[in-house]
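Attaching the record inline, Q. Sequence:
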Amino acid sequence: MARRRQIYEGRAKILFEGPEAGTLVQHFKDDASSSDSPKKGVITGKGVLNNRISEYLMLRINEIGIPTHFVRRLNMREQLVREVEMIPVQVIVRNLAAGSFSERFGIPEGTALPRSIIEYCYKSDELGDPHVSEEHITAFEWATSQDMDDIVSMSLRINDFLTGLFLGIGIRLVDLRLEYGRLWEGEQMRIVLADEISPDSCRLWDIKTNEKMDKDRFRRDLGNVEDGYQEVARRLGILPEGGPRDMKGPEVMQ
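Structure, as predicted:
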């Protein structure tokens, strides 16, 4: 198996040096954790499912004219992505009250919001991804006002598109977390969607039963965590034949 230099390791993914300049290999792990609690664990097959789900959704989003870092899937756990300069901000689009939003505002979980609400978090494991405003983002020069205009526009379009896509398969998109990066092509720069879109980064509820089909099953000890991820993949029509199988990533070069 090819030996590649590890660039970065996060809670759910590892980035390796890509086969060509300007590319990275994104490896999806089974590890699970929560940014708002010390809880950690493993969800068997999660990496395989998230790889397939994110591939499918990134391709669909690209079809509506929104640029992404995704190039192609390489194997069951890995995909080739363009190397981008990540903006250290998580963009959260909320359609229904849930999770910390319900707690902060005292709104019952599942309450439909008057319109989609965008919130921002500074991406920092050490600080627990604190909520920030656009004023913080521009003042600390994490992104410019023009960058933020592009990010807000793309985020709302992605949310509208995915809301309809999931609605068609009986799933309610409660909220989603998006990340963006700067893709440099010579002297030209453009903002592109990066990271992943999966049940790790979205709240997905069954429309009829409100059953949770995302990482909240892990966060809240609801059990059958793998089943939720598999059901999302099944409804999207992309569940790997024979179910998720284990596949190790490339060896880390010391």
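The first strand starts at residue 3 and ends at 4. Residues 85-206 form a domain with the D-amino Acid Aminotransferase; Chain A, domain 1 fold (CATH 3.30.470.20).

More tomorrow.
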